[in-house]
Amino acid sequence: MSELRKNAIIASVSRDQLYGTNVFTLKDMANSLPKPVFASFLRQMRGRQTLDKATSDAVAHAVRIWAMDRGATHFSHWFQPQTDTTAEKHDSFLTLKSTSVLNEGVHAIDTFSGSQLLQSEPDASSFPSGGMRTTFEARGYTIWDTTSPMFIQPQANGTAVLYVPSVFISYNGDALDEKTVLLRSGETLSRAACDLLNLLDPAPPGHPRVVNQVFTTLGIEQEFFLVDRALYALRPDLKICGRSLIGNLPPRHQQMEDHYFGKIPSRVVSAISEVELELYKLGVPLKTRHNEVAPAQFEVAPIFEEAMIAVDHNLLTMDALHKVAHRHKLKALFHEKPFSGINGSGKHCNWALSTDRGENLLEPTEKPETNYRFLLFLVAVLDAVHKHGGLLRAGISSASNDHRLGANEAPPGIISAFLGEHLTEVLHSIEESRPVKNFSRPEIQSIKLGGRVLDVKVSTLPNIARDLTDRNRTSPFAFTGNKFEFRAVGSKQSPSFPVTLLNTAVAASLREVSAALRAQMGDRPYPTDADKLAVIKKFIASSRPVCFEGDNYSSAWAEEAERRGLQNIRSAPEGFEQLLEKSNHSMLIKEGVFNESELHSRYHILMERYAKDVLIEAGTLISIINTTVLPAVFEYRQVLASAASALSQIDGDSSPERRLLAELAPVVSKLQADVAKLDEVSKEVANIDDAPKQSHAAYKQILPIMEAVRAGADFLEYRVADKYWPLPKYTELLFTSS
């Protein structure tokens, strides 16, 4: 489609007409199903009954008609294996029907049955299973997730595919995917939250419960780099590993602080605008786009949604960015640290709790010191982060995110929570049984705790309301007004697993809060304010070590965190061990989010993936040095040697050339030795059969040698004449996306 035609279409169609046009919504379903059938489906979707054959057949027929009217020829169960991406297999609606009775042979028809909608059968042995499935135990099932709407995706040839969001389980019913455990965690958190809410505000006898469901809400900010695709194609490390294994920063990169929120390059605006157009059709409420801190780095963010849908939409966002960038001759890089020395990319997960009445349980209101319901939920979250911080660190651990954590705008690996001075003072005043103090700074002494009006002292500018808390970009888990921002999640990983662990940990703490409240109540039918305050005080005191208001980057904080007993987990393999740590392990099993085999398989999958990632990077680096860097250096040395020889023959001064040759020689020799050592150690690590041992060995033995190899290659990049250096440099990669 030409740009003029596309722009005309965009201009003529408003967002409200585009939004959700490729989604089979509940409204579409209601319009195409008999009322009793639709009512039956709603009861099933809300967990009140199982889905019967008649209902599933009716839904399947309705969605096939809807999809085929929009060009669909195939359907696919769309699921999330443990690969941080999605998987799909396309099946045609085509069915052959025999009419031999009429002596007419066989003819083709389009059908889609309820059984085809409900489940499919991918090869489970070909996905990561941590030993739960082997090559001769291949059967696995995808099952339609009725809580996530079906949608169509147009294909390049003008047809479309109907996508059925699904979970993925083994033949024995074990979760092999990211979504099954996320759904379980949402249910266990809902039960725990509802129990506490109905304890605080019990319904009168004979009346229904006040709150029947609590949802986790999620807003996922997605950071990424966009680089020129032609330059990307010349970098084997970016193509294979997603990050540059060698390369020097240019003299100017992000230190001028002029890229953040700057004017978005025209080619990038065009690409992201097209992404928004694609995602609006899929019902993804993309709201924000802007330049990030590093050159060639950008961010998009949606309006917050229920967490299960938000995860699906984030994966669709990454897919759309990948496809549309390609059409604009760009490449989207989702690796957490594609370029050394500058800002890495995260996936900031803004997490909160909402009741089925639409109330945000993390809304402090104007006087949080008397909002006991808010405070009970707040201290439950803090308790979860304190007791299971190591588990949250496991959820964000990967070979790629390890390069980002604690460097250039990313929070460190020490899991702590930031509340801001307002809420910190509230908790301190409650713990110490005293009134809330005014703040020490003169300019805010008269400010109420619920916030204040800021006067900019310019007559033409309006006064604005200040938020309850400041923002702390160095904190991995920061309260930002009425939600927590889990900033440490990696940009390329699925948000499912870290959110699953967070949900489960909070559910366990909510149960402990409820138990403490019941113990405090005794025989009373409902808790008094004194009961609530006693429990709040108890949990404030126990979770105090995890609350930190300062600079998480500082070395002083690492020392202080150690004194507080907080873990400083420096590597992904060390983080993965937290899954099997006694308190984390028992909590995850007790809450029913993982069974024993699922948890152990997850541990082995993560360990194995880490080792594979590092070994792939090592192999790629060896290849680049041996086949690209060293030949370029040898060619340049030959030119220098020839020039020095020629100058000597005519009594010219060849000392500059000889000095450079002398400077290059030891570096080249050491680089060759380091590469040989890397090759040797990589082979040794690759031969380790035990996944955890292999993962730890990859971290301890391979990564340090890779850093030494990189140092040598980067030194040579600075010294070798530009015309001989074969790889695009950071200068081109970071400043050619416009």
From TrEMBL:
It comes from the Eukaryota. Residues 73-173 form the GS beta-grasp domain. It holds the Pfam family Gln-synt_C. One of its GO terms (biological process) is glutamine biosynthetic process. InterPro entries: Gln-synt_C, Gln_synt_N, Gln_synth/guanido_kin_cat_dom, Gln_synth_cat_dom, GS_Type-3, GSIII_N. Residues 178-629 form the GS catalytic domain. One of its GO terms (molecular function) is glutamine synthetase activity. Belongs to the glutamine synthetase family. PANTHER family: GLUTAMINE SYNTHETASE (PTHR42974), TYPE-3 GLUTAMINE SYNTHETASE (PTHR42974:SF1). This is Glutamine synthetase type III N terminal-domain-containing protein. It comes from Thamnocephalis sphaerospora.
